[in-house]
């Protein structure tokens, strides 16, 4: 029986959170992931004798790990973690209450009695704007415990089991001292300093292959479109990201990398030529790129994705294609399963592939490539049982061998097939739409091009100015623009992108253009999961009477847009909307039970943005009545009355006449759903967007129901 080779590629990346001009770090994720995902993954490989894997460490991550280990930076999270609790200012306390719950609650906060107490005291739906109202209700010991518990929660399973200090602090659980706090941060910093040397040691031992990515994680095909399809064609920048990445890699690991994981698995013909020119032996991307590249040929998925390929123009550059289903099972499915069953399921898939390829010519390799840090946040034990299961049990399977891409290429274990062309795309939908195409994304590319052009117009531009351009070319900024994905840090990402461009002008000694000081993220039409299909009239009783009652309504699912809400649970889960001949209907699904005391502090607001300006306030407290308030264009209140057209039980159902909303047939009604809690706005949905619905005409309704 032939051996089936298996390669795990764990991609670890963080964008540049640092302002080069001030050394200020805007977000703490490199520091926090170091003691969790990066250390966990290293120890899981090291502690399993037969484990082997490829770990992709991006240059921007490597740079920041080194930078943080040298402690020559300004990191607000670290500074406020260390500041004595009795010396915290009001602003410090607001910041801590807003930010020190930013971790998966179910797997971390709620497993600690004291952390849960502090969360409930702060409130699970508290926004940053509301934190200022509760700072005085927390004592110094509360803040001290929160400072420790937050950083302690970011210590993964490896440190929790192997490090005496971390074990003792977790056992202590509460009533921490300033000495405890300082010891924990020092431990954190010692681990940060050990991450890169530890991976180097494992690479030198042959257990790990460390690969990397173009320096600031740019979408290379968008920098070197060749035909100018994307309007930003700077192949020199693309090549610079690659050569800079190799130089940094050599400084850490004492050798050149054998291969790259291109940012987001993004490839095109020009990118391949750059990889070939610098001497790379392999790259990896998604199976859909291969299947699109072979379109028109009579191929079967299972007969091609377990083989490396060589492009006819670039011999010697092996291209590996990940098994998308297996990779996504780890990313999105296995965290919700009993972990023993998840391991068994994965191994069963591997056995089936091993048996399948026996009848095919030559040797085969299964590529499992995915994010190596974020999925583990959703595993109940941080991925410990799953990782130890696959690393410990897979090598015991007959004719299955864990290996690395470098080993496969160097020892010619799997002969590559030939490829005539490569489809231009990424590992998401085999295209680039996540990073270009929407108004916000295109605006960002436009500002980048303008700033780059300004830099090229001066004689002998400073090297640091170019560094800011390269940093602005990171894929991460474009990922968060538009409404494909959203997070609690959208405004920070927007600022970081524009900051790099503003820094170019500062380094050149020129005035920063006003347009770079303005946020790119502005209010625009959002994309619901579905639009309304027909007019309908629901029963307004606060209950789900049948599946079909709201079937014809439009639907916006809050957490379907790739949103991340570390630090708090959203009150709104989803909302439905639509019309009949005289009313707007809205259904809001929430995380609040109508019998909970918490409901008394919450109001939902249907805010009409156009063509009128109306607030429909819906209190969840039983004893309060709703209101409809109309404003003129200047924001002055011109009409207000009580409103009773709603009900809250399982769900919130609302119906309101068009006459109250000051709209008429054929108007485009634009609205958002706001959540008011304790007098402050806690949520707005869609985030940075609005929903648009056309008021139907009588003629339209007659045609609709006569069709």
CATH architectural name of the domain at 4-15 and 207-419 = Alpha-Beta Barrel
User: Strand percentage, roughly?
Assistant: 15-25%
Radius of gyration based on Cα positions: 27 Å
**How far apart are the first and last residues' alpha carbons, in Å?**
63 Å
Structure, described:
The structure is a single chain. The protein is an alpha/beta fold and 707 residues long. Among the domains are: 4-15 and 207-419, Alpha-Beta Barrel (7-stranded beta/alpha barrel); 439-522; 554-706, Sandwich (Immunoglobulin-like). It contains 24 helices and 28 strands. The strands form 6 sheets. Strands 15, 20, 21, 22, 23, 26, 27 and 28 form an 8-stranded mixed β-sheet that branches. A hairpin with a 4-residue loop joins strand 2 (18-19) and strand 3. The radius of gyration is 27 Å and the shape is globular.
Short description:
By secondary structure, the protein is an alpha/beta fold. The chain has 24 helices and 28 strands. It is globular and about 80 Å long.
Secondary structure elements and pairings:
Blueprint: E1 4-12, E2 18-19, E3 24-25, H1 29-46, E4 53-57, H2 59-69, E5 74-75, H3 76-82, H4 90-99, H5 113-122, H6 140-153, H7 157-162, H8 164-172, H9 178-205, E6 208-211, H10 220-223, H11 235-253, E7 259-260, H12 269-277, E8 282-286, H13 287-293, H14 301-304, E9 309-311, E10 318-322, H15 324-333, H16 339-357, E11 364-371, H17 384-393, E12 400-402, H18 405-410, E13 417-419, H19 439-456, H20 463-472, H21 475-480, E14 486-487, H22 490-508, E15 524-525, E16 554-557, E17 563-564, E18 572-579, E19 583-590, E20 602-610, E21 613-619, E22 626-631, E23 637-643, E24 646-648, E25 652-657, H23 658-661, E26 668-677, E27 680-685, E28 689-694, H24 698-706
Parallel strand pairs: 1-4, 1-11, 1-12, 3-5, 4-6, 7-8, 8-10, 9-13, 14-17, 15-28
Antiparallel strand pairs: 2-3, 9-10, 16-18, 18-19, 19-25, 20-21, 20-26, 21-22, 22-23, 24-25, 26-27, 26-28
Helix pairs in contact: 1-9, 1-17, 2-9, 6-9, 11-12, 16-17, 19-20, 19-22, 20-22
């Amino acid at each position: 029986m032939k051996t089936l080779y298996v390669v795990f590629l764990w991609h670890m990346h963080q964008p540049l959170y640092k302002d080069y001009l001030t050394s200020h770090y805007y977000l703490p994720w490199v520091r926090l992931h170091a003691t969790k995902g990066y250390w966990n993954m290293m120890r899981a490989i090291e502690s399993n004798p037969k484990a082997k894997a490829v770990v992709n460490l991006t240059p921007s991550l490597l740079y920041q790990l080194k930078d943080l280990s040298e402690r020559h930076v300004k990191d607000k999270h670290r500074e406020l973690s260390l500041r004595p609790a009795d010396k915290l200012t009001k602003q410090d306390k607001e910041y801590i209450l807003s930010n020190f719950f930013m971790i998966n609650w179910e797997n971390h906060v709620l497993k600690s009695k004291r952390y849960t107490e502090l969360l409930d005291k702060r409130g699970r739906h508290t926004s940053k704007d509301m934190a200022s109202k509760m700072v005085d209700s927390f004592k110094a010991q509360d803040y001290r415990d929160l400072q420790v518990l937050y950083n302690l929660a970011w210590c993964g399973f490896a440190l929790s089991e192997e490090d005496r200090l971390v074990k003792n602090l977790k056992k202590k659980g509460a009533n921490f001292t300033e000495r405890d706090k300082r010891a924990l941060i020092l431990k954190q910093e010692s681990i940060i300093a050990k991450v890169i040397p530890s991976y180097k040691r494992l690479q030198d031992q042959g257990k790990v292959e460390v690969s990397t990515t173009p320096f600031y994680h740019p979408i290379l095909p968008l920098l070197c479109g060749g035909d100018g399809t994307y309007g930003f064609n700077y192949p020199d920048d693309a090549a610079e990201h690659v050569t800079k990445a190799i130089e940094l890699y050599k400084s850490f690991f004492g050798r050149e990398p054998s291969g790259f994981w291109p940012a987001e698995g993004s490839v095109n013909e020009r990118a391949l030529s750059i990889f070939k020119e610098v001497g790379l032996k392999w790259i990896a991307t998604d199976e859909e790129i291969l299947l699109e590249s072979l379109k028109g040929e009579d191929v079967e998925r299972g007969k091609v994705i377990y083989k490396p390929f060589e492009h006819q123009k670039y011999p010697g550059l092996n291209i590996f294609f990940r098994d998308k289903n297996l990779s996504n099972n780890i990313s999105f499915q296995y965290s919700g399963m009993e972990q023993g069953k998840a391991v068994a399921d994965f191994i069963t898939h591997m056995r089936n592939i091993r048996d399948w390829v026996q009848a095919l010519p030559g040797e085969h390799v299964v590529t499992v490539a995915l994010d190596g840090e974020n999925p583990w946040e959703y595993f109940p034990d941080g991925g410990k049982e799953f990782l130890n299961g696959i690393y410990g049990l897979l090598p015991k399977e007959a004719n299955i061998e864990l290996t690395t891409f470098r080993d496969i290429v160097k020892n010619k274990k799997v002969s590559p097939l030939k490829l005539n062309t490569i489809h231009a795309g990424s590992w998401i939908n085999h295209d680039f739409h996540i990073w270009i195409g929407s108004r916000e994304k295109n605006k960002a590319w436009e500002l980048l091009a303008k700033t780059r052009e300004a830099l090229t117009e001066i004689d002998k531009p400073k090297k640091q100015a170019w560094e800011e351009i390269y940093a602005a070319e990171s894929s991460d900024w474009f990922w968060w623009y538009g409404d494909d994905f959203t997070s609690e840090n959208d405004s920070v990402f927007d600022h970081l992108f524009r900051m790099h461009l503003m820094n170019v002008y500062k380094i050149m000694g020129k005035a920063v253009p006003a347009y770079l000081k303005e946020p790119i993220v502005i209010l625009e039409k959002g994309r619901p999961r579905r639009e309304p299909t027909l007019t309908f009239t629901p029963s307004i009783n606060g209950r789900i009477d049948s599946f079909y009652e709201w079937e014809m309504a439009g639907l916006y699912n809050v957490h379907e847009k790739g949103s991340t809400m570390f630090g708090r649970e959203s009150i709104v889960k989803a909302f439905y909307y639509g019309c009949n001949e005289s009313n707007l209907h809205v259904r809001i699904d929430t995380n609040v039970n109508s019998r909970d005391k918490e409901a008394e502090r919450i109001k939902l607001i249907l805010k009409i943005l156009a063509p009128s300006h109306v607030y429909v306030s819906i209190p969840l407290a039983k004893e309060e009545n709703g209101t409809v308030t109309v404003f003129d264009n200047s924001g002055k209140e011109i009409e207000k009355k009580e409103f009773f057209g709603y009900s809250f039980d399982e769900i919130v159902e609302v119906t309101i006449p068009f006459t109250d909303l000051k709209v008429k047939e054929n108007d485009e009604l634009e609205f958002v759903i706001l959540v008011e809690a304790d007098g402050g706005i806690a949520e707005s949905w869609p985030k940075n967007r609005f929903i648009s619905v056309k008021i139907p005409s009588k003629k339209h309704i007659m045609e609709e129901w006569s069709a």
